[in-house]
DNA sequence: TAAAGCGTGTACTATATACTACACACTATG
DNA sequence: CATAGTGTGTAGTATATAGTACACGCTTTA
């Protein structure tokens, strides 16, 4: 359980082993931020960036945006929108599922996608 | 579908019909904000207040905090925490359930609470 | 050995968020 | 008819958020 910063750095260095285009500077440029900023993010000298920046970073580094956002304590705006449309329903559901084991939740997911609803 | 502000005002005036302690000033005081601020919130002259303030307001006005937060486009911090602990799982679930009708989601809720998991 | 590229330290900055403080006019109450 | 209470207009503020800009020393490359 290390933080968002180290997680990003590790992944970047991972990718770098197979492709030299993953220097801090180059990634920063593709993501559209200053290299110094990415440096600080990776070393957690500054708090996590915005949702948008995190998403671009996730895409660039081939990471799951939802995971990256979660490590920053954030929830993607599209999920927020889903909840906000039926707040009582989904609030109840989530609190209900808080301590439900993964496999049981996944069973629900599969049942729903098998779509006899 | 009127906004958060009018919704709050309406509820406050509703409560006021049976209890004079629901003037804008008195509610504001109990909630811990300035009356001018509450006034602006109700008339949507200012953007919605913080999560904490909305929750205290909900309690004071006997409204569902999740609903109030939702109308402000926010999601309660405890729900965020639940999602952030298993982001992939719950992101998938929520996107899956986005267009699932209420009754079907409620069926899940009941199945889970009947707890044979 | 010069130039390009690397990561980082320091110092700012712009915008959004979340309010407060004071003054005013109107209404109801004692 | 004074005074207590009501809602609101105007102006300002503190803090958080989300970054930028420049300079530096080190390393690799040509």
Describe the structure.
Chain A has about 120 residues and is an all-alpha fold. In chain A, about 65% of the residues lie in helices and about 0% in strands. The longest helix of chain A is centred in the N-terminal third of the chain and has 13 residues. Chain A is elongated, with a radius of gyration of 18 Å. The first copy, chain A, starts with a helix and ends with a helix. The relative contact order of chain A is 0.10. The interface between A and B is large, with 41 and 41 residues.
Secondary-structure blueprint:
2 copies of one chain form a homodimer.
Chain A: H1 4-16, H2 24-31, H3 35-42, H4 51-60, H5 65-71, H6 77-85, H7 87-97, H8 102-113
Chain B binds a DNA duplex (30 and 30 nucleotides) through α2 and α3.
Organism (chains A, B): Marinobacterium weihaiense
Protein name (chains A, B): Helix-turn-helix transcriptional regulator
Pfam families (chains A, B): HTH_3 (PF01381)
